[in-house]
Amino acid sequence: MSKAGIVDAALGILDQYGLADLSMRRIADALGVQAAAIYWHFANKQTLLAAVSDAILAGQAPCDESMSIAGWARDLREVLLTHRDAAELVAASLAVGLCTRVPDAGAVEVLEAEGWPPDDARRATRAIVHFVLGHVIQEQTRQNLLAVGVLTSPTPALDEDGFELGLRMLVSGVQAVAAG
């Protein structure tokens, strides 16, 4: 049993059962060990969840000069949509500061290269990250509710067109601030 194996098992459980059912006991059962064995590798559940968040964010392409800020945000959305409840998990892990990967890595540097002061570049990319996380949390929540029959039809405002409109508005605002 390794850290990577535990994270892989946790990702499998996340995808199958969702964040609410991602317990240390369920992960241990999937690995055929006692829950206490996981604590040999992770100090607590929060550090394990942060490692799972890092594994999810590892799928994100690094932002560089060849990628637009909007393209970077779209890529982040796609990465989050690949795992059930990923946006909620990543948002929580970022909030407690335990992630070693951050979704705006590279994007800050791209804005700085365009002349943005570092603090403003960080704030601008964080605003976009917060938009993406919030939108995907709503998308994934609705998907979960549709899957169990609580909702009977998707909400058009939360589809890809809604995401694109919100992203366009946010990026336009960032560009307007940059223009002075």
From TrEMBL:
Record's Pfam families? TetR_C_1, TetR_N
Please give the start and end residues of each transmembrane region: none
Tell me the keywords, alphabetical order.
DNA-binding, Repressor, Transcription, Transcription regulation
Choose any GO biological process term that the UniProt entry carries and state it: negative regulation of DNA-templated transcription
DNA-binding region extent: 23-42
Residues forming the HTH tetR-type domain are 1-60
Q: Which GO terms describe its molecular function?
A: DNA-binding transcription factor activity; transcription cis-regulatory region binding
Query: What PANTHER family does its record include?
Result: HTH-TYPE TRANSCRIPTIONAL REGULATOR RUTR, TRANSCRIPTIONAL REGULATORY PROTEIN
List the protein's name: TetR family transcriptional regulator BioQ
